[in-house]
Amino acid sequence: MSFRERLQSWRYNLVPDHLVGEILTKRWTDNAIPFLALAVTLATFGSIIPGFFKLTSLQESTRQLGEFSMVVTGMTVVMLGGGIDLSVGSIFALSCFSAVYVFFILEQSIWLALAASLATGLVFGAINGYLVGYLRLRAFLTTLVTFIFGRALFDILVTTYAADVQLSTATSDVLDFIGDSTFWGLSVSVWLAIILAIVTHIALTRSRPGWHVLAVGGSRRSAHNAGIRVRRTVFMTYVFSGFCASIGGFLIACRLSGAGPGTGLNLEIMALTAAVVGGVSLGGGRGSVIKGLMGAIIVLTMTNGLIRLGYGTGTNQMVLGIMLAVAVTIDIRWLKNRHKVLNEVYVAPVYLKMGETQSAAPGSGTPYELDNRLSAAEHIGLGELEGPEDVILDRDDNLYCGTRHGEIVRFFAPDYVKSEVFAHIGGFPLGLAFDKSGNLISCVGAMGLYSVSPDREVKRLSAETSRSWTSIVDDARLRDPNDCDIAPDGRIYFTDSTKRYDAHDWALDSIENRATGRLLVYDSKDGSTKTLLDGYRYTNGVCMAHDGKSLFFAESWACRVHRYWLEGPKAGTAECVIRDMPGYPDNINRASDGNYWMAWLGMRTPSFDLSLRHPDMRKRMTRRLPQDEWLFPNINTGGVVKFTEKGSIVEAMGDLTGGAHPMVTSMREHKGYLFVGGILNNRIGRYKISGADPNWTSPASYWGAAS
C-alpha cells in the first residue's frame, strides 16, 4: 500500500466522522441545546453577580422556582397534547386570591383555603378544556379570552378586598411552614414541584393516558383513527394545567400572605417561553417535563439576574421576547429539516482497498470457476415463497425456510409439494439451526435470536448484548442478527452483521463499508449473550467445524472467511482462512465429505471495488442521486463454493442462465441433495450432488443418529 493509500485509510477509518450522524439520531440531542443554554446562563450570571450562588439567595430563588415550575409543568402537558394555555397567569392569580380570601377574610382553615384554590384552577381548566377539547375552538383565542376575563376579575377582587386582607389577624403555623420553611435545605414549594414533575413524567412515559397525550399532540387525526378519545384527552390536559397553576397560586399565597396587582402578571409569557426554550415543541407531541423544567430554570435565572443587575421590566420583557423568538425558530426549522440533516451526515463511507482476486468466470481455470450446474436444480415452492434466505431439514427429512412475511414454512417430505406455516415469528427469519432437542433456532432480522419448539411454541432467546462504554450508537441491541449455529455444549453462536443499520438497510452498510459486524454467543444455561469478536465488515454465515472445536464465519463485504477457535492453544482467537474471494460470502454449512459449503450472495465487480477506494465519491452519490441509481454490490449472480478446513477451494457451481437460482444466500446438504435458498428468490432449489453420501444428514452430523 502506497503512502497516499495509507493516508486515505487512516483518514476515513480512524477519524470518527460518522459520530455526528450517530449523535443526531439520539433523542437526547434535543436536550443538548437547552442544557447548554442552562449551563451558559448559570455560569454567566453566577460569574457577574456577587453572591449569586449563596444559600440565602438560592433559597429565595428556589421558592419562586418551585411555584413557577408547577405552572410550566402544566403548560408543558398542554403543549405536548398539541394545545396552548395563555390563561395560566390569570388562573395562578385567581387561585392565589381564593386561598387568601378564604384564609384571611373568611378566617377558615388553611386546608379549606387550599381546596378553594384547587377548585378555582380546576374550574377554569375545565372551561378551557371544554371549549378547546369538546367544542373544538381555537386554543390560542380561547385561552386568550379566559386570560383577559380572569385577569379582569382578579383586578376587581384585589381592589375590592385588599384592605380587608391587610387588616386580617388570621395566622397559621402550617401557612408559615409552607411559605417560609425548608426541608433538607429545600423549600416546600421546590419539593412539591419535584414530586409533581416526577409523577407527571412517569405518567407521560409509562401510562396509557400519557401515551394518549403524546399521540394526540403528534397527530390528532391519527390518534382518533387509533381509537383514542381525542376530545377527552385534550380536555384533561387543560384541567391538569389549571390544577398545576392553582397549586402554584396557593404556594405564593402562603409565601406572601396576600395577593397584589402584580401577582401572576406576565406569567403566561414566562411559562410559554420556558417550555419552548426547554425544547417542548409548539407543534405538540415532542418534549418532556424535564425539558420544561430546564426552560423554567433558564427563564427564572435570566429574569432575576437582570433585575439584580439593575435592568427594569422592559428589558426583561424584551429578553423574554427574543428568547421566545429564537426558540420557536430553532424548534420549527429543526423539526422540519432534521431528517435532511441526518441524510446528509449519517452515511459516512470509509476507505477500503480490496485485494486482487482470481477470476470466477467460466473457462478461467481457477478454483473459483463457476459452472452452470445449479441451473438443473428442481424447484420447490415456486411462487409460494418470498425470500427463503436460509433452508434446513429435520430428522424426518422435512424442509424449513423463513420468508419475508415473518413466517417459517415447512415442506413435507418426500416430494416437498405440501407445505404449511410452521410458525409465525414476525420480522424476517434468516439463519436457521436445530438444537439437540429439536428446537428450531432462528436469527430474526431487527428482532433477535428466537427458538421454535417442536410443538411450535415461539420463544425469544436474546435481543441484546452488553453495551460497550465507548459507543454512541446503542450497540447493545441486535440490529441485524443473520446466521447461527450450535456447539456441542448447546451454546448458540451467531452473527450480528452491523451495529449501525437494520437488516433492511444492508445496502447502506455495503456502501459505507464500516467494520461494525460482530460474532456473539448465547448461553442457554444463564440466558446471557456476549460479544466474542467485533470490527468485521458485515459478519454473515457461521458454521461449527466438524470436530466442534472451532467455527467458521463469513465477512461478506471484505470477501473473507475466518476461523474462530473455541478450544486448544488458539482458543478465543480468530484467523483468516480465505481472503480476497471473487464473491461475497453468505451462509456456511457442513458437507458430507468433511468439507464445508459456502454461499456467494453476489460477485465482486471492478466498478464497486474501485468505488471502495473513493469514499468521497460514495458519499456524494448517497447525497445527490436517488437510491435506485446508486452503485451497489452485484447481488444478481452468485453461487456455491466448497472449501476445506484449511481454506482450500474444492469446487464451485452456479446458475449462469439466471433462470433457477442466480442469487444464493444459503445451501444445506441432506441425503445426497443440496437444497439452495436465496433472499431474493421465490423458490428453493434441490440439486442432486454427484458422489455425495446418500445417507448423510446435518442433524446426525451434529447430534448423532436418532435413538
From TrEMBL:
<feature type="transmembrane region" description="Helical">
    <location>
        <begin position="32"/>
        <end position="53"/>
    </location>
</feature>
<protein>
    <submittedName>
        <fullName>SMP-30/gluconolactonase/LRE family protein</fullName>
    </submittedName>
</protein>
<dbReference type="Pfam" id="PF02653">
    <property type="entry name" value="BPD_transp_2"/>
</dbReference>
<feature type="transmembrane region" description="Helical">
    <location>
        <begin position="234"/>
        <end position="253"/>
    </location>
</feature>
<dbReference type="Pfam" id="PF03088">
    <property type="entry name" value="Str_synth"/>
</dbReference>
<dbReference type="InterPro" id="IPR011042">
    <property type="entry name" value="6-blade_b-propeller_TolB-like"/>
</dbReference>
<feature type="transmembrane region" description="Helical">
    <location>
        <begin position="292"/>
        <end position="311"/>
    </location>
</feature>
<keyword id="KW-1003">Cell membrane</keyword>
<feature type="transmembrane region" description="Helical">
    <location>
        <begin position="110"/>
        <end position="132"/>
    </location>
</feature>
<keyword id="KW-0472">Membrane</keyword>
<dbReference type="Pfam" id="PF20067">
    <property type="entry name" value="SSL_N"/>
</dbReference>
<feature type="transmembrane region" description="Helical">
    <location>
        <begin position="265"/>
        <end position="285"/>
    </location>
</feature>
<dbReference type="InterPro" id="IPR018119">
    <property type="entry name" value="Strictosidine_synth_cons-reg"/>
</dbReference>
<keyword id="KW-1133">Transmembrane helix</keyword>
<feature type="domain" description="Strictosidine synthase conserved region">
    <location>
        <begin position="482"/>
        <end position="568"/>
    </location>
</feature>
<dbReference type="InterPro" id="IPR001851">
    <property type="entry name" value="ABC_transp_permease"/>
</dbReference>
<keyword id="KW-0812">Transmembrane</keyword>
<feature type="transmembrane region" description="Helical">
    <location>
        <begin position="139"/>
        <end position="163"/>
    </location>
</feature>
<feature type="transmembrane region" description="Helical">
    <location>
        <begin position="74"/>
        <end position="104"/>
    </location>
</feature>
<feature type="transmembrane region" description="Helical">
    <location>
        <begin position="183"/>
        <end position="204"/>
    </location>
</feature>
